[in-house]
Amino acid sequence: MPNNLQEQILLEDAKSQPAMMIQGGSSRPLGDAPRLVANYGGQPEDWYKMASK
Question: Quick one: which of 3, 26, 32, 53 is 20 to 30 A from 11 by CA?
Answer without folding.
Answer: 26
